[in-house]
Design brief:
single chain; 294 residues; alpha+beta; Hsp33 domain; 2 domains; 10 helices; elongated; disordered N terminus; binds zinc ion
Amino acid sequence: MSQTTHNPDASQRFIFENADIRGEIVRLNKTYLDTVRGKQYPEPVGALLGQFLAASALLSTTIKFDGRLVIQARSEGEVKVMMAECTSAGELRGIARYAQAPTSEQFSELLRGGNLVITIDTRKGEPYQGIVELEGTNLAECLQAYFYQSEQLASTFYFAADKDHVAGLMLQQLPGQLHKDEDERKRHWEHFSTLARTITDEELLSLPNADILHRLYHQEELRVFAPRDLKFACSCSRERTARAIAALGKVEVDEIIAEQGGVEISCEFCGTEYNFGPGELALLFEGAEEGTSH
Ligand SMILES: [Zn+2]
């Protein structure tokens, strides 16, 4: 088993042996830096995107499928769109779009009047989508409201970030298996979530997971799972880009060719540039026409 200290980009799951509660710790360094590299995000925007990345990793870990989990916010505030996704293979990417340099560092200003949408895309069947209004003073509160509304399960989130790292801690109530009594479940939840909130930014960012868990829950029996490696990766490809160009329609693409000689597209997430010359573009539409004639 690899030590998380050797690969800081990982998440690790734990469950309480004597309470229906699970937890997860995530820490991102290179993944975060790869996501924001070359983007010149203003500091509060980059920091918030880091939290979105951490949240997507925390929420994707329990989903047993081949697919991805996407957290996306759309707002009327200074950040118009923010999204992060994590695949079942532990590959993350994310992006922020903002109208101007933000004048505030406040979550409620950056993402004012918006919604948070969580999509689980399993690549087979309809994606599952849940939505919550962006209320509260930070992402953690929004996610807590989301899980309370959608699943009636209590959860607590805690995020910390510095210039190069982002870390997150999640605790979530599970449906009653060990204990059915509501009062007992509530007592467990209050006890363990109160302890979780005693973590400091510094501890969450720098301590190994074993030390964090010892510091919070040394009196409890925990089952700790193997860490799951995480990394930045983009799912863009030449084929997908070609499909997006074909979707513009022949008329529009012919106009772009007349003006620019070809089509140049760079991926918003990873910056990869895709160039298509007139010959290759003509083939795109020939293929489409043949396809429709069958
Ligand atoms: Zn890309």
